[in-house]
Write a structure and sequence with these properties.
It is a single chain. 47% of the residues lie in helices and 14% in strands. The chain contains 10 helices and 7 strands. A hairpin with a 2-residue loop joins strand 1 (121-134) and strand 2 (137-147). The protein is globular and about 80 Å long.
Length: 404
């Protein structure tokens, strides 16, 4: 068990071996991607292989059996996984983030969840459920859509408001931790992309949650009470919302890089129909466009590692991000989002209408990335407005500081 202050660095020396393992698994993972999409949840063979590698616990500190990676190290692994299947990378990113955040809570909660080793946690918070205070705990009920990875998880992290009369009495969202055997999974995930994530609705009805399994706004994640024992890793000081936002971009960079690989390879072989070009690469326009999207994607990757590096530096220094830093972080992520979006659109134009055939992996990457980029954390207009308001000192901002 880790003592406070014992770990002073991340364990990113593990990253090259993880990437090598994923490269070896890429044909298998990619080969099951269409089946995962058809069943609307991860294929067991793929999920089991990734679990055996520890892919779902890369952000967890070593004290609970995780890898103890930095956000930059994790992003490198996510890029590689997304090249095989963006939906599976989405599940890995969500399970990592939701499982990691529980390791920053109280000693009692950490022990309840992880005393027997790493345990995966899925989670959602909006719309919140209701928690009614009773002796020794709470009675929790609610329905939480978009619970990615719920079929791979042992626990559900359920956002809720505290109430005695039907009206919220505590501002903000509290988190109840409920074993999956007390949760019902409602089959509700019918979307255009990321269908293979199994992001269905988790449902709890009048479930008793003891006090130590409720994280309240008064003592939220990262709170260090006197005598806290399970603390000391750099990951205990990550900024929550920026971490989720930044690491989520990695899977879209990886998916776009895979699309570029496919289109570049095809362009050396396929003609441009109705023209004299026997190969797309005979066209200087196509060569120009491929060079341009490659540069845009390189820039998106640079932005990704700029924002993850900022999180890693702050965690190692033990300092919180200032509000303006958070706002800039959100805006830089918005810029990366726009670059990735531009890249995948141009690649589909270069690839032509055949890329939309259901037999082509390009259309699945394209759909997955489109859906993922529309996550509320990624919307560029919100990112730019938040940054603009902070730069101009327009108060209050449109989002509370802790939520960006």
């Amino acid at each position: 068990m880790t003592s406070p202050g014992e770990i002073s660095t991340f364990r990113d020396e593990k990253v090259p071996a993880l990437i090598q393992s994923l490269q070896q698994l890429r044909p298998m993972i990619a080969g099951h991607a269409a089946a995962a999409e058809a069943q609307r949840s991860p294929v067991a063979q793929v999920a089991d292989a990734l679990n055996d590698l520890g892919i779902f616990t890369l952000l967890m500190p070593e004290r609970w059996g995780g890898a103890g990676l930095s956000t930059s190290g994790f992003a490198k692994v996510e890029i590689e996984l997304a090249k095989a299947d963006p939906a599976m990378a989405w599940v890995a990113q969500i399970l990592n983030g939701t499982t990691w955040i529980a390791t920053t809570a109280s000693d009692a909660l950490q022990e309840a969840l992880f005393a027997d080793g790493p345990a995966l946690i899925c989670g959602a918070y909006n719309p919140p459920g209701i928690a009614r205070k009773v002796d020794g705990g709470y009675i929790v009920s609610g329905r939480w859509p978009y619970s990615s990875g719920s079929r791979q998880a042992a626990w559900a992290q359920c956002g809720c408001v505290l109430t005695d009369t039907g009206q919220p009495v505590t501002p903000g969202i509290n988190m109840a931790y409920i074993p999956m055997d007390q949760i019902t999974i409602e089959d509700s995930w019918f979307v255009t992309g990321l269908q293979g994530t199994g992001s269905d609705t988790t449902v709890a009805k009048d479930v008793f949650v003891p006090d130590h399994r409720m994280v309240t706004m008064e003592r939220t994640f990262g709170h260090v009470e006197d005598g806290k024992r399970h603390v000391g890793a750099p990951s205990d000081r990550f900024a929550l919302v920026p971490l989720v936002r930044a690491t989520g971009l990695a899977q879209f960079v990886g998916a776009a890089e895979a699309m570029l690989e496919i289109v570049e390879a095809d362009s050396k072989l396929k003609p441009i129909v109705t023209t004299t070009y026997k190969h797309r690469t005979d066209s200087s326009v196509v060569v120009h466009d491929l060079g341009r999207v490659a540069a845009q994607l390189d820039n998106a990757r640079l932005l990704l590692f700029q924002v993850t590096g900022q999180l890693d530096e702050a965690a190692l220094a033990g300092r919180p991000l200032a509000p303006l830093e958070r706002a800039q972080h959100k805006a830089l992520c918005a810029q990366a989002t726009e670059l990735i979006h531009a890249v995948i659109e141009k690649l589909m134009f270069i690839a032509g209408s055949s890329a939309f055939s259901l037999a082509s992996p390009l259309q699945r990457y394209w759909r997955d990335v489109h859906v993922g980029l529309r996550h509320i954390a990624n919307l560029p207009s919100l990112g730019y407005e938040v940054y603009g308001r902070d730069r101009l000192a327009l108060s209050p901002n449109i989002i509370p500081v802790g939520a960006y």
